[in-house]
Write a structure and sequence with these properties.
Length: 364
């Protein structure tokens, strides 16, 4: 039975298409081969006091992948307009036109990929898609209404987000509101939640990351958890790896119940950091509100950079490094995901099969 669900997951993930993992995903000996044609990075730049550094330009960033220099394709600061660097005179004509060993074709100046194709890509990358994942397990019996209020306030405050989805989880995942621009629909989903069973956070977070792979642009998952995972069948490392490879940022907001459990604390911090997000641990509802406000502020100040990977024979884990060009700027701190894997090990079991609604339609 478990093999049947694994096969279903491999087939469904192979059908996903998005700006970060476009085109091909093939099964090979239980692995998923993802041919990455465009890599999107969400980069936070802060000073020593944690204040956001604004006003940076594309030439201020240096991107390498496995120490191979990369040429930026698009650039966006905060919620501003996405710049198509491939059509600008200083950038156009610098990209190669030969496929690398992984089958990734680099666009040529004057081709549809570098001009009209890139312009349509810029339009696709505008806006943020935010997925909220709410813990409704039996950990949440205390403070349930306060948590709902905090999430509802967060939804109302996301004025710049393009679309929002609201999911909840206990042992299973419930897609109460799939990705939509209708805030009222999302708020109805928040108010409809009820406390449930044990917490299978990593199972349900994996399914949520899989949903984000259907969409282009900045993709964010905000998890509100009230305790450690006690029912999942997949390890958190698999969740983090899939999030990195799909360019999905994970923010974790948890209460003191998880903070008091050292393993969960380490996992939450490690997972969020690996994807370019943050982990917050709240002692009360005021801390929760501050955490949501911090995430909203973070999203408004991220730089979004994209590039087509230069030829690279490495078909496994590719390490990404982002630095600032000038010596004066190197005092600033950079936060972003640190890489992605072309070969992804898909580990799934029958415990992930039960969801409340069909998978979202990316055309909605």
């Amino acid at each position: 039975m478990g093999k049947r669900y694994l096969l279903f997951f491999l087939i469904s993930l192979a059908l996903c298409s998005n700006a970060d993992t476009r085109a091909t995903a093939q099964e090979s000996n239980g692995r998923i081969l993802v041919n990455v044609n465009l890599v999107q990075l969400n980069v936070a730049v802060t000073d020593s006091k944690g204040r956001y550094v604004t006003g940076l330009n594309p030439q201020d960033f240096i991107i390498t992948e496995d120490k191979i220099p990369q040429k930026m394709a698009t650039f966006e600061e905060g919620n501003g307009v996405t710049r198509d660097l491939m059509s600008e005179p200083s950038v156009a004509g610098n990209s190669l036109g030969q496929p690398d060993s992984a089958g990734t074709t680099q666009p040529v100046s004057g081709s549809p990929h570098s001009l009209s194709g890139a312009q349509s890509l810029s339009a696709q990358l505008n806006g943020a898609n935010v997925f909220i994942l709410f813990d409704t397990s039996n950990y949440m019996y205390r403070g349930f209404a306060y948590a709902q209020d905090s999430i509802a306030d967060f939804v109302r405050s996301l004025e710049e987000a393009h679309k929002i989805a609201f999911y909840s989880y206990s042992r299973d995942l419930s897609r109460a509101a799939t990705l939509t621009a209708d805030r009222d629909q999302v708020l109805r989903g928040v108010r409809s939640t009820v406390a449930g069973d044990d917490a299978a956070l990593y199972n349900c977070l994996l399914l949520t990351v899989k949903d984000t792979a259907h969409y282009t642009g900045r993709k964010v998952i905000v998890v509100f958890s009230n305790g450690p995972d006690n029912a999942s069948l997949v390890p958190p490392e698999d969740v983090a790896e899939l999030a990195q490879s799909t360019g999905t940022i994970i923010y974790m907001i948890s209460t003191q119940a998880a903070r008091d459990e050292p393993v969960s604390t380490a996992v939450f911090e490690r997972m969020s950091k690996a994807t370019g997000g943050k982990a917050y641990f709240s002692k009360n509802w005021k801390d929760e509100a501050r955490a949501f406000a911090s995430i909203r502020d973070d999203l408004a100040h991220l730089y979004t950079l994209t590039y087509y990977p230069a030829p690279n024979p490495n078909r496994g884990w590719r390490r990404i490094t982002v630095k600032l060009a000038s010596k004066d700027q190197q005092k600033y701190r950079i936060r972003t995901r640190d890489g992605y894997r072309l070969l992804q090990q898909a580990q799934l079991s029958s415990g992930l099969s039960a969801v409340s609604t069909p998978e979202p339609d990316p055309q909605e």
